[in-house]
Amino acid sequence: MTNTAYPHLLQPLDLGFTTLKNRVMMGSMHTGLEDRFYNYGKLAAFYRERAAGGVGLIVTGGISPNRQGWLLPMGGTLNFLGDVPNHRRVTRAVHEEGGKILLQILHAGRYGYQPFVVSASATKSPISPFKPRALTERGIEATIRAYARCAKLAKMAGYDGVEVMGSEGYLLNQFLCARVNTRSDQWGGPIENRMRLALEVVRRIRDTVGSDFIIMYRHSVLDLVEGGNTWDEVVTVARALEQAGVTILNTGYGWHEARVPTIVTSVPRAAFAGVAGRLRKEVGIPVVASNRINMPHEAETLLARGDADMVSMARPFLADAAFVAKAASGRVDEINTCIGCNQACLDHTFANRRASCLVNPRACHETELVYVKTNTPRRIAVVGAGPAGLSAATVAAERGHQVTLFEASHRIGGQFNVAMQIPGKEEFAETIRYFGRKLETTGVQVALNRRVTREELLAQGFDEVIVATGVRMRKPAIPGIEHPMVLSYLEVLRDKVQVGKRVAIIGAGGIGFDTGEFLLHDPAHPLPQPVSTWTGEWGVDLNVSTPGGLVQPVPAHPYRQLWLLQRKTTRPGAGLGKTSGWVHRAALSRGGVRMMAGVQYDRIDDAGLHITVGGKQQVLEVDNVVICAGQESLDELTAAEAGNGPRFHKIGGAALAAELDAKRAIREGAELAARL
Ligand code: FAD
Ligand code: NAP
Ligand code: SF4
């Protein structure tokens, strides 16, 4: 597996007692499968595909060393012999494919969403309703023993090592920082005391497992919360961990309660790699860079620059199990890139649902969504090359069907061509690139600029027709809606018509928020945002010259004055993604956008937009009103019965416009094509 394009990435890493075949690590992700014993077959299949895809090292989702450490009630735990056989299924699958795997030991501390939570001090976290009990000295000793027992069982189960989770604000991080640790005994006070628990955990694990077992420690190098550690403290802890027996130092950025985004799509690629680079100069063991690294080029560049010895990518392995194999064989254009949307992974995890991936619905469903070669190839027409149609066409062709894809416009991608115009959503272009290449490799015949009719489809004698024609915009019945100041979001985002400086946006769904971000952005500033601009806007100091690396944010000057309106009385943006919605709300708030709920639209005329809110009439004196009021299905093909002709199937927006997103569109396309 060698490719001169990525010499650093594909170089083995010799750890003395064992060698990793390359510098790529699949970082820990909670899939939801690890919490129930009956899902371990599915979990093993998930990891097997990633190991077969060539990744050098895999880290499992977080497994708790005891009940107090659960993230959720009855969360995945490894604390007695009876748990070992389940884990053996996972390690066997990975080893059979030539991979290596670590078990992540995660004690959630006060982040646990369950009543047994403990922490350094009895300080409730803002993200769990359960107030923790401060661990007693005996409780601390029992916790250390639990970590060591968990590592011992992991070794028995065949793992190649463990990762001790010490970042993102979990228990060990809580002890490390004065933000939570207000103890006055030997476990609190100066950093030498606050780091005692982390060090004892590592020493006790090392004593238990011996020297030929990887201990990775995920160290919080940038807490991004008030009361976080200083750079000197970060380095002191790292050096002490090395002395205590850690083999590899992974890096972590931001507590879960931090108000700075660290992984959503608007965070620039590899934004934090330089911090790992600074740490690497302070220790003698391999250091791993992490967060928003999603393509081989960024990974190779940061390794070549000396920022790290390994690169951790987590979500990119949900998006594409064969990431490394494709990079190694010169097929980087075939990589299905993680676009950082969080919609099917973290948003699912936080809703206690099984994780998957928006761009790859097979993720965590490897045994259920299977693309079997067909014995009865058929002629299939797919109409519409948006996410739904692209997904259906490529899966059907991969299975051996003869597929023709008709698209009315001059390019594939559907609404993703519009989504990628939004500042911070540039990654959406990667999905179009991926599908474009996949159409070539699977041999789909693509007919662009072809708005097909039902008659044409019937005349061509297809066996199956998949209607993926998407949606049309909803035009609300507001008096004056035909006024020249009224624009649709497509005119603004796709056609780039001129927009005035004062704008009212009707509709505060995902597209209303996106349109807001587009209109706030000064077109003179480059996109994607350079790291320095992004850190300035969010108040991040990558030199960590302040505790936690927080400084005063310097918001960009808003390019326009905006009003974002909705009829519902709920908080605008309440329906956005759980793990990304707050970032969009914060971005618009920083831009001074006035968000109004409970709005009644009275009329639009030369004076502006007339509204009534809370019984009071007012006029928003704006230059333009932009309509983002949702969509309706576009289906002009399946209106009448098919008779003896082909079978018609509807997917994506064509099937149902309500609550449509690309996750559903791509999944429906893949599921249908897997059945045909
Ligand atoms: P579409 O993408 O609408 O594709 C339909 C295609 O069919 C079009 O290319 C059209 O030209 C073609 N077509 C129509 N009629 C015919 C015909 N008769 N013959 C041939 N071709 C035809 N979703 C998310 O999940 N996350 C996001 O963050 C997100 N952000 C968005 C931001 C913006 C600004 C926009 C506009 C959308 C966003 N979406 C997002 C929504 C997402 O893009 C849609 O849910 C998704 O594209 C729907 O896929 P689809 O294939 O059903 O339809
Ligand atoms: P949406 O989320 O359904 O929002 C539509 C908005 O229009 C709502 O604010 C609604 O609020 C308003 N509206 C509906 N009917 C109206 C009417 N007759 N008159 C005036 N206002 C009306 O749809 P969208 O924003 O168009 O997004 C489409 C899909 O793309 C969504 O399902 C979303 O998941 C996806 N998307 C996701 C993201 C993301 O970041 N995850 C981003 C963009 C798009 P009221 O009814 O209260 O007025
Ligand atoms: Fe990446 Fe989105 Fe897939 Fe999650 S759902 S892995 S963020 S593309």
UniProtKB/TrEMBL annotation:
CDD domains per UniProt: DCR_FMN
Keywords: Flavoprotein, FMN, Iron, Iron-sulfur, Metal-binding, Oxidoreductase
Cofactor(s) in the UniProt record: [4Fe-4S] cluster; FMN
Segments forming domain FAD/NAD(P)-binding: 379-638
Domain NADH:flavin oxidoreductase/NADH oxidase N-terminal: 9-333
Superkingdom to which the source organism belongs: Bacteria
Listed InterPro entries: Aldolase_TIM, FAD/NAD-bd_sf, FAD/NAD-binding_dom, NADH:flavin_oxidoreductase, OxRdtase_FMN_N
Family: In the N-terminal section; belongs to the NADH:flavin oxidoreductase/NADH oxidase family.
Designated name of the protein: FAD-dependent oxidoreductase
